[in-house]
Design a protein that fits this description.
Low-confidence stretches: none
Strand order of the largest sheet: 1-4
Number of domains: 1
Distance between the termini: 23 Å
Number of strands: 4
Mean pLDDT: 87
Length: 320
């Protein structure tokens, strides 16, 4: 029996709802399952810690969503975290001016993103090669600036990473505010439509009159700035700066973005999906810590979920 137009319309709406909320629905399911393995898992204190930890990855994943949606990739975000941390600590130690350290650390990440954008957008380098090169350079610069950790930040700066507002950690509030801003930018502004158009069909977007180079430059610059913000918050949270602080973080960020619904082929990205992906990865890590399971198992399971997420995205794109 053929389905009625109303039933088909309802089914389409449900699929659309799942596309936008899928990761959050899975978060609820897995949270309930994980609570069966550990009585402490669903406690307020533990879930607050999960969100605090996830906020760093989520802020970075917001920027990575723009990059992947534009058809690119950025392997340098972990090094941006390290470079930002090194600049922050070095300037603070040298001048005692935390505002200057804050500004120059933010500038360092933003300029790294700008360099990525110039290489990818204007020099036409493949994103993998360009960002891989800056990944190595950023890590080198970080250790060249300071080989060790630097601390003793002002209390108000440490509050940025450890403070609470209305029982919510400050980093979590920053995460959701940035998520909302970039959700609106990606889904309800011309710039966002340009990003998706370029990722979906770059040649078609160019023929339609879009300035592909300028959009890519903006996307990578924004990504660098957001990674730098995440790095500053992370330094505030651990109350010190360290040049190796961002080691391997880029893989978790890319994983969160893909699990959240972004397509590695470009043309598709979900801001709040990426945030949900970051929470999901940190939930796995938190559970393994509670159960005393080796950390390498988290990498295995995260890798499996990336494969599953890419497989689901491929099936959905073929269906469409």
């Amino acid at each position: 029996m053929a389905s009625s137009p109303t039933a088909r319309k309802t089914g389409a709406k449900l699929l659309s709802l799942y596309d936008h909320l899928g990761i959050w629905l899975w978060l609820v399911v897995f949270a309930l399952l994980f609570s069966l393995l550990s009585d402490y898992f669903l406690s307020y204190a533990n879930f607050r810690n999960i969100l605090r930890q996830a906020s760093i990855f989520a802020i970075m994943a917001v920027g990575m969503t723009l990059v992947i949606a534009s058809g690119g990739i950025d392997l340098s975000v972990g090094s941006v975290i390290s470079f930002t941390s090194a600049v922050l600590g070095t300037v603070w130690q040298a001048t005692g001016n935390i505002w200057l350290a804050f500004f120059l650390a933010l500038l360092a990440g933003t300029l790294t993103g700008l360099a990525n954008g110039l290489l990818v957008g204007y020099c036409l380098m493949p994103p993998f090669i360009a960002t891989f090169g800056l990944m190595s350079a950023g890590a080198g610069f970080a250790f060249a600036l300071t080989p060790g950790s630097i601390g003793d930040f002002p209390p108000w700066f440490e509050y940025l990473g450890n403070g609470m507002l209305y029982r919510l950690p400050i980093p979590v509030i920053v995460m959701f505010v940035l998520g909302l801003l970039f959700y609106l930018l990606l889904n309800h502004r011309r710039f966002g439509r340009s990003v998706l158009a370029i990722g979906g069909n770059e040649n078609g977007a160019r023929m339609a009159g879009l300035d592909v180079r300028a959009v890519k430059l903006a996307v990578y610059t924004i990504n660098g700035a957001l990674a730098s913000i995440a790095g500053i918050i992370l330094c505030a949270r651990i109350r010190s700066s360290y040049p190796g602080i961002g080691l391997d973080m880029e893989m978790d960020v890319i994983a969160a973005t893909v699990i959240g619904g972004a397509s590695l082929m470009g043309g598709e990205g979900r801001i709040f999906g990426a945030i949900g992906g970051a929470v999901f990865i940190c939930m796995i890590q938190n559970l393994f810590n509670l159960l005393g399971i080796y950390p390498f198992m988290q990498k295995i399971i995260t890798g499996l979920f990336i494969v599953i997420a890419v497989f689901i995205n491929e099936i959905r794109s073929r269906r469409e």
